[in-house]
Amino acid sequence: MTPPRTATTFPPPVMEARRWLEGVTFPADRPLINVSQAAPVDPPHPDMRRAMADVVLGDDSAHLYGPVLGNPALRTELAARTARIYAGEVTPQNICITSGCNQAFAAAIAALCSDGDEVIVPVPWYFNHKMWLDMSGATSVPLTCGDDMMPDPAQAEALITPRTRAIVLVTPNNPTGAEYPDGLINAFFDLAQTHGLKLIVDETYRDFHSHSGTPHSLFQRSDWQNTLVQLYSFSKAYRLTGHRIGALAASPALLAEIEKFLDTVAICPAQIGQHAALWGMRNLDQWLTGERDEILRRRSAITDQMPRLVANGWRLRGLGGYFAYMEHPFALGSADLAPLMVKQAGILCLPGTMFYPDNTPQAAHELRIAFANLDADGITTLFDRLEALDLQPR
User: Fold this and answer.
1) What CA–CA distance (Å, rounded) separates 141 from 162?
2) Are 238 and 297 found together in one domain?
3) For position 40, what pLDDT does the model report?
4) What is the DSSP secondary-structure string of 340-367?
């Protein structure tokens, strides 16, 4: 008997990690440090919340079905913003709004892949991408990143077969934090274009990129629509995680296929969240700049604290967006180390084994730290606890 699609993949990793907290108590002088999930814990800006309340009370249409591809005003605003950020040409017809960025990825794969088709995914990978490919009947083809956590286009080309449909990049990367340079992203675009593939670029953490200027130049290409599928999320920028508002940029022809998926799955994105995202883009640029600056300060705090751990054999493999990706020095594998750290150090983080194919040796040596919800004092405390871990070294 053929198993159901959901049985072809693993349980949600963040939910699995939360189960490690069951039965564990944390004393008042050593509360839990939760660095397992990359999601803001603070609510949206108070002015945004008031704007949302005004919509709830005063806009009757916000309680009805909306257009499948999203609020036209929001699509227009995001198209203009994307064109401005990337110095390219993007129209509202290139934009659709989705129920979170995960749904944007799911919609793209649904429109591109059939059973047995292949998608090249750099590893360590974002586990929800892998899960959706499993449940879609598509094959995830792992592309091992180099020591600098960068994927190699030449190695990717060697993995292309007649069943390959797309290559996926996440930048700034989840889980490693690595920020792919423009030249590398363009090299992958050229590779995809040459072989008639789509290049899916997930930029969920774009608003917290450490470099000023355009994150990449793909939208400046006159033919970008034939190859590029860009994914974006409003969740991190405006603290709208619970409202599930993401976006996708692609050709109108591909969006026509994606519309079939979105209409069947959710009919339309949540109206209140869409109004919030629109209000945020129109009113919170200065506030968002401050949010980015704070994340960059926390990133710098990681860099400043890291020598303490390096002295004990730790290694920082990647840093950016919301993430510090670390190699630990212990003999114990990360799948066992991460739940042990809950009990011994009051730290909840995710093991590298959640971001690799099964039985990948290097996964046992790696941990993902989602640092964005820790201030400078919290990061110092985190490093105090990591430094104090006393386990058998490798």
Assistant:
1) 13
2) no
3) 87
4) HHHHHH-EE-EEGGGGS-TT-GGGGGEE
